[in-house]
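User: Structure please.
Assistant: Input sequence and predicted structure:
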Amino acid sequence: MEDADSVIWLKEVDDPSRFGVAVHEDDKITGFVEKPSEPISNLAIIGVYYFREGKDLMREIQYLLDNDVTGHGKEYQLTDALDRLLKDGKVFKKATVDEWLDCGTLPAWLQTSGVILEKENHGHPTIDGVKIHPPVFIGEGIQLKNREIGPNTAIESGAVIKNCHIEDSIIQSDAKIYGSKLKHSTIGKRAEIENVKGVVHAGDDSVISNE
């Protein structure tokens, strides 16, 4: 950090078109591109930054707002502010991390949940009639009856799950699931799922039934 005006933490990703990325020469950053359509760099900006002078960044962000400078989806892009600082002669250096857990898509959210469950190694209760395959997280006040839960499944408090087989899934609080076999699924708060098999992504308060 001693000879840098800013340090940006980066991580190599498979699909850089989803992220802001940095172009570099050795440890010095030479450019920023938001959600590149061409394979210009696979080093994603992960959202961890160091700025020697925060007021410089605030000045450039204010410039974007005052002049309505927008990019992808008519959104204001932090990478535009960073690029203006770079063109003003500020020295940007890169730093990297060994692990970055992304939640930007449903598959990424599920994968990250599985990694966290493995790391945290939660214990789980023994429940008659329920076979549990760790790693799992089972919150408080959950009603479980019959069949199998896990692996890589997080169930938040207040959920009711009966006669189900659920794996690699996230079940949010107070959801109710009956007679279903779910995998790679995300079930929102207070959603009700009945007699469903396969992959389901249900938002809060959804009702899905296959009678």
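The two ends are 62 Å apart (CA to CA).
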